[in-house]
Amino acid sequence: MLYIGIIFLLVFLDQISKYEIDTWLVEGETFPILGEFFHLTYVKNRGIAFGMFQGKLDIISILTIVVIFGLGFYFFKNRNKFSVIEKLGYSFILGGAIGNIIDRIYRGFVIDMIDFRGIWVFVFNLADVWINIGVILIIVDSLLDSKRKKKD
Asked: Residues in the active site (predicted)?
């Protein structure tokens, strides 16, 4: 199935990026890409988004696994009802969630490296990007669906 392939590709890209950062940099080290606006910075995140729940890795991991299985079951059970945009959205969310849970289980933390200092202080990774893209795609699909229903 195409969407399983997309999920695997997203997980692969996320894990490769984390492996490369772990190989090239040490924790706390930063490498400027675009002046002071964009850096690659090695951060070990032992929490979830925006550094919340630091040190609660066991609870976070269990809840994440439950969500992955629940969302995966819902997605694959209902995939024939979803639009292409919605299927892509779920694929991105699952790819991102799986990428981060691999880190939590394998490393005991999530490697973050994308550091847009010109925008905010948080450092994140490709898995986080995938999850956000997925959510945006599902919202866009919902808005388009609402518009279509109003036309009819």
From this structure: 112, 128
